[in-house]
UniProtKB/TrEMBL annotation:
Keywords: Cell membrane, Elongation factor, GTP-binding, Hydrolase, Membrane, Nucleotide-binding, Protein biosynthesis. Required for accurate and efficient protein synthesis under certain stress conditions. May act as a fidelity factor of the translation reaction, by catalyzing a one-codon backward translocation of tRNAs on improperly translocated ribosomes. Back-translocation proceeds from a post-translocation (POST) complex to a pre-translocation (PRE) complex, thus giving elongation factor G a second chance to translocate the tRNAs correctly. Binds to ribosomes in a GTP-dependent manner. GO terms for cellular component: plasma membrane. It is found in: Cell membrane. The keyword Cell wall biogenesis/degradation does not apply. Belongs to the TRAFAC class translation factor GTPase superfamily. Classic translation factor GTPase family. LepA subfamily. Belongs to the GTP-binding elongation factor family. LepA subfamily. This is Elongation factor 4. NCBIfam families: lepA (TIGR01393), small_GTP (TIGR00231). It comes from Nakamurella antarctica.
Length: 601
């Protein structure tokens, strides 16, 4: 196909604003999927994506579209729709998908208006010099306020409200006009067809039958089956076993030229060998310059993952090995814990990545898992100048610490203006510094804060939602590190530290953490034959203590006090009659007590 007849675009939107539904309508209208085989959210292939209604791995599809020109002649075009993952955890993947496009449909729910991810994605699109087509979706909804939100949208991108398209992904209204607009407004790809081949990898998925399927956008030259290619970041060469387009299933072709989007298969077995962001070129007389810098995925959040049933450990290992084939960002290494036994310390791109991974392990591999409190990456410098990278409280160095650096994020919060006070108060308690505030309209406001990532991963989103009745939206990106006054708090049972409860916290929160953990454990741990002190300590300094009195003969050995109803679901999952006791020094603790203490709020 001539580049002049190609348009590469993506749809960017806040979650739930209707991106997948709109993509479905486009598949149908262009005849790529007939109504019979149509199912909701065709492009969201993973079960978990369909259930949660979010797109985790991007999918792209080739759509034929004919437009009648001014002379009344029909002209055929090829549109490549690139479906980007919508969540902050996957910013780098989103940015690579955007880099494969010339334009973006900016989709906004006509009953909701602009939200935090709308803005975050818009900024990424503008950084990539994409042409933006502003669209209000769900105009079929009785609650839609198209005038109001068209003004908001026009204000943000600097166009006239009349240029904002009105569509409904549900009824299909306005979708044809939108496809025409894609052809009319988005520039066609430009590249040198005689230059050595260069293509960018913007997604890579593992398929059990075919190995890794890599999605590419060709910039220069042409790639053909059976040619040898070089992956420029890994400097490995591979043979192109298959080259094709997605329509919407993979269809082999004789090659991909300038501006085309499609897939390649090279026989590699692991997505790490075919990395998002890498440039491929011909292995002989190839290009020397890459298409933008390749960036390794960097885990931002770490947490321990343990099977509830210790005998499931080998199963967990196999499951992680399998997931990794399809997830270049997931890292893990074995870890053992007094309280929880053998497990893995896993690194994730963010909280959602953590949740998805855990969900998949439980769902696809039938594992029952417990995860420890998430931790960020700390850089600890000692008095003697030595440095430690700490992703696990148990690796916190002993000795004199000179300073600690922690990751800082820039967050954008969008909310109805009546909640400004509540949001500011919340951000203050989370060590936030306000960067600015703008009104999107009279009633909606955008607040910008910088904040330690550690404060965000500790239930910030839930707290924000509950203070704003669910109306606020949040997006954040890492912007560097800052020095923080951080300490490690240990929890000790009869003088023995319980590793799973150690936490790195800001000095001002240390006491509160110590008190809440000692109180919790006091309620959860059954009485023993002897008195058991429970202490919270920073180094050798005890900051909180409780004591479990010794058991008396007439006292029934009742295990639990307190409210563990929230834990019930997890506890129910455990097989009956298999009460696992863990020894911490001389103290016998049911594993359930540890799990309950880790899981409640
Ligand atoms: P995504 O998260 O942006 O991919 O959003 P989805 O396409 O999954 O849609 C989120 C929800 O909005 C689903 O319940 C859809 O059925 C609904 N929805 C999407 N588009 C429309 C629309 O045009 N009109 C109405 N009434 N509902 C829609
Ligand atoms: Mg979706």
């Amino acid at each position: 196909t001539q580049p002049e007849r190609i348009r590469n675009f993506c749809i960017i939107a806040h979650i739930d604003h209707g991106k997948s539904t709109l993509a479905d309508r486009m598949l149908q209208l262009t005849g790529v999927v007939d109504s019979r085989s149509m199912r909701a959210q065709y492009l969201d292939r993973m079960d978990i994506e369909r259930e949660r209604g979010i797109t985790i791995k991007s999918q792209n599809v080739r759509l034929p579209w004919a437009v009648t020109n001014d002379a009344g002649v029909k002209e055929d075009f090829i549109l490549h729709l690139i479906d980007t993952p919508g969540h902050v955890d996957f910013t780098y993947e989103v940015s690579r998908s955007l880099a494969a496009c010339e334009g973006a449909v900016l989709l906004v729910d006509a009953a909701q208006g602009i939200e935090a991810q709308t803005l975050a994605n818009l900024y990424l699109a503008l950084e990539n010099n994409l042409t933006i087509i502003p669209v209000l979706n769900k105009i079929d909804l009785p609650a839609a306020q198209p005038e109001r939100y068209a003004a908001e949208l026009a204000h943000i991108i600097g166009c006239d409200p009349s240029e904002v398209l009105h569509v409904s992904g549900k009824t299909g209204q306005g979708v044809e006009a939108l496809l025409d607009r894609v052809v009319a407004n988005i520039p066609h790809p430009v590249g040198d067809s005689d230059a050595p081949a260069r293509a960018m990898i913007f997604d890579s998925v593992y398929d059990i039958y075919r190995g890794v399927i890599t999605y590419v956008r060709v910039v220069d030259g042409k790639i053909r089956p059976r040619e040898k290619i070089l992956m420029m970041s890994t400097k490995t060469t591979h043979e192109l076993l298959e080259v094709g387009v997605i329509s919407p299933e993979p269809v082999p072709t004789k090659g991909l030229g300038v501006g085309e989007v499609g897939y390649i298969i090279t026989g590699v077995k692991d997505v790490r060998q075919s990395r998002v962001g890498d440039t491929i070129t011909s292995s002989v007389n190839g290009a020397t310059e890459t298409l933008g810098a390749y960036q390794d995925p960097q885990p931002m959040v770490y947490s321990g993952l343990f099977p509830l049933d210790g005998s499931d450990f080998p199963l967990l290992r196999d499951a992680l090995d399998k997931l990794r084939l399809n997830d270049a960002a997931l890292t893990y290494e074995p870890e053992s814990s007094t309280a929880l036994g053998f497990g893995y310390r896993c690194g994730y791109l963010g909280l959602l990545h953590l949740e998805i991974t855990r969900d998949r392990l439980e769902r696809e591999f039938g594992l029952d898992l417990i995860s420890t409190a998430p931790s960020v990456v700390y850089r600890v410098t000692m008095d003697d100048g030595s440095e430690h990278v700490v992703t696990n409280p148990s690796d916190w160095p002993g000795g004199k610490i000179a300073h600690v650096h922690e990751p800082i994020v820039k967050c954008t919060i969008i909310s109805p203006s009546e909640y400004i006070g509540a949001i500011m108060e919340l951000c203050q308690t989370r060590r936030g510094t306000m960067g600015g505030m703008d009104y999107l309209s009279e009633t909606r406001v955008e607040l910008r804060y910088t904040m330690p990532l550690a404060e965000i991963i500790f239930d910030f989103f839930d707290a924000l939602k509950s203070r704003t009745r669910g109306y606020a939206s949040l997006d954040y990106e890492e912007i560097g590190t800052e020095e923080g006054d951080l300490v490690k708090v240990d929890i000790l049972l009869q003088g023995e530290p319980v590793d799973a409860f150690s936490a790195i916290v800001h000095k001002t929160n240390a006491y509160a953490y110590g008190v809440s953990m000692t109180e919790k454990l006091h309620k959860l741990i059954p009485r023993q034959q002897f008195e058991v002190p429970i202490q919270a300590a920073i180094g050798a300094r005890v900051i909180a203590r409780e004591s479990i009195r010794a058991m008396r003969k007439d006292v029934l050995a009742k295990c639990y006090g307190g409210d563990i109803s929230r834990k019930r679901k997890l506890l129910e999952k455990q097989k009956e009659g298999k009460k696992r006791m863990k020894m911490v020094g001389r103290v016998e603790v049911p594993q359930e007590a540890f799990i309950a203490a880790l899981s409640t709020d």
